[in-house]
Amino acid sequence: MSEITLQIDGREVKAEEGMTILEAAQSAGISIPTLCHHEKLEPYGACRICTVEIEAHGRTNLVAACLYPVEQNLVVRTRSEKVDKTRKVLLELMLAHAPDAAALQDLAQEYGADKARFGKESSFCILCGLCVRYCAEVKKKNAIGFVDRGTRREVIFIPEITSKECWDCKECFPLCPTEALQATFLLTKALMSPSPPSAPESEE
Amino acid sequence: MTTEEISRIDKIIDKYEGEEGILIQLLLDIQQELNWIPKEVAERISQRLNIPQSQIYRVASFYTAMSLTPRGRHLVSVCMGTACHIRGSPRLLDRITDILKIQPGETSPDRSFTLNTVNCLGCCALGPVMVVDGKYHGKIAPTEAEEVLKNYD
User: Fold this and answer.
1) Domain annotation covers residue B68
2) Are the Cβ atoms of B53 and A145 closer than 8 angstroms?
3) Which residues on A lie below 8 Å from B61 (Cβ)?
4) For residue B56, is it within any domain?
5) Which residues of chain A have pLDDT under 50?
6) Do both B92 and B132 map to the same domain?
7) Residues in chain B closer than 8 A to A132 (CB atoms)
8) What is the structure's pLDDT at A201?
9) B46 with B92, same domain?
10) Which of A142, A149, A203 shows the shortest C-beta gap to B52?
11) Residue B143 domain boundaries
């Protein structure tokens, strides 16, 4: 593996080919905020909170640090006016869904995000996909998944698999940056309980 | 599902066995065959082709061409695009919901009609447009809707 030198926040950082900006930054002790990132899982790039500004070939661009591979002589800024503004708006959009999510509060304070900027749309889920991907990639049970699209997209448990697999696992619960997952699980449980054999599909 | 239905579904699945990246095409075939994708079918595909149910529901709920609830024998789509809108499609839609006694997204209890709205059909000069089973009816006044729907049962 060839070694690559890049600059992050003015510091020379050495990285290996194939690493992402996030990995290179972490190895150098530079912190980039993340929400949908998990070391056991494939990079996903859902939350975009790890957005950084890069400069290459004389241009600047905003990219997701958890996905973007390092390049020789790449200049990365983890904080800049543009980055901070982008993160602020992202947080405000997420706060419209999950205004009281613990994981968002510190970030909101740091970037000056106003949780009341956008009308409340309390799904309590920011669609980071941590639970869905953990269940699929680590546990390989696929008990939970996304349905629908756009503004109606949401996470659901598949009742038949949930009733077999989830009671003793629940490893996805602590991953959730909001409390939406437990609520979804409880709803599924409630729908499953009365008459499991012919319980209707809980699409709604 | 009846055994006859199951064997029909199995035949469709047979066509795709051992191939990758076929889920969308398979689901479209099943949608065509049954007019919807029942839960039992999703489970069957999952078992036979080793595709997680969550993936099947994700795809089936994403595309409007697929339905996880039974669709009627006739599909009525009313265009709500900008051009049709200003040419009076809201009134046309009102009239159609009155005639069929269902709201957009719903299927009549006897499964004769499913009504939905679409955002543009690409023939704005014909607005307001409604499509029944793939046949386009352009410049439809609310009063003419009944005439069109009478031909379907």
Assistant:
1) no
2) yes
3) 147-149, 203
4) yes
5) 199, 203-204
6) yes
7) 54
8) 52
9) no
10) A142
11) 74-150
Of A132, A147, A160, the CB nearest to B61: A147
Q: At what angle do helices B39-49 and B23-34 cross, to 10 degrees?
A: 140
Assembly ipTM: 0.81
Q: Are residues B97 and B140 in the same domain?
A: yes
CB-side exposure of A105: number of CA atoms within 13 Å?
4
CA atoms within 13 A on the CB side of A20: 19
The predicted pLDDT at position A204 comes to 43
pLDDT digits over B60-118, tens only? 999 988 999 999 999 999 999 999 999 999 999 999 999 999 999 999 999 999 999 99
Alpha carbon distance A162, A142 (integer Å): 9
Mean pLDDT computed over B32-55: 93
In percent, the amount of chain B with pLDDT more than 90 equals 82
Residue A116 in domain: no
Domain boundary among B14, B33, B62: B62
> Does the distance separating the beta carbons of A201 and B39 come in below 8 Å?
yes
Q: Does A191 touch chain B (CB under 8 A)?
A: no
Say if B67 falls within a structural domain. Answer: no
Which structural domain, as residue segments, surrounds residue A67? 3-79
pLDDT at B153 over 70: yes
Residues B83 and B107 grouped into a single domain: yes
> What letter would DSSP give residue A177?
S
Does any domain span residue B69? no
Test A136 with B62 for CB contact under 8 angstroms: no
Rounded distance, CA A46 to CA A102, Å? Answer: 18
Contact A121, A96 (CB under 8 A): yes
* Contact present, A14 and A4 (Cβ < 8 Å): yes
Query: Domain boundary at B62, B90, B111, which?
Result: B62
